[in-house]
Amino acid sequence: MRIRAVLTDLDGTLLEPDGSVCAEALTAVAALAAAGVPVLPVTSKTAAELAPLLARLAIDAPAGCENGAVVRLPGGTTELLPGAVPLAELVAVFAALRERTGAPARTLLELSDAEMSSLTSLDAASLALARRRQATLPLVVEPAWDERLRAALPEWPRLRLVRGNRFLHLHGDHAKDGAVPRLLAAAGARGGTIVACGDAPNDAELLARADLAVIVPGSAGPSAELRRCVPGARVAPHPHGRGWAAAMTTLLAADDGHARGHAARPRTRGAARS
Ligand SMILES: [Mg+2]
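Above: query sequence and magnesium ion SMILES. Below: predicted holo structure tokens.
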């Protein structure tokens, strides 16, 4: 097996629930980089939030932001992807949706710093970056309301409501996997096994698109819905970053390109799956 690229969710997958990075995950990111395997984050975070995080992770690669609405290229340029709906339109639709359903829902933009901080553990500077959204609107609402809100959505066929592990996300008709072709092209990643890692139902399309899918458990175990959506996925042996790191270490040990050196390795029949 030769690993072409690792597409990975961040929150709860590579990162801890409080947004920190464990030492094992940092080591595994460095090992992938040393093996010449691009690590391409695909996240619900904004491009503004990603910049300091990528620096902390020492990842200099394109990244998918806002659930497949935006690609951030190295250097900080961003591109809106097909299907993305601008934020102002999402805010207007949400107001109508809330009025119609009576759902006790609020957007992330309506939360005070204290409320947002208690939900996300972000500091004040990070909160400002999380509010710099381009084309997704996270909502705070009990999951019991999800179906009632979705039932009111057909009036806006370009929009979707997708549950992440903290928020319900309102956005255009796109998912994280929509960023994959642009990310692989921008990273210059060709030939080999595409690995994808995630922890929540909003990672389902991303994992389903990969050749090899890894579900990273939370502290209460892996997401049952994600396992249903991607039944062939492997499950990492520990929660969050430690599990991500363990899964990546196992894959790297089986990466024949890694064993022979990335630049000089010859392609062998059957090594590439896509
Ligand atoms: Mg996640």
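Residues 18 and 121 are 6 Å apart (CA to CA).
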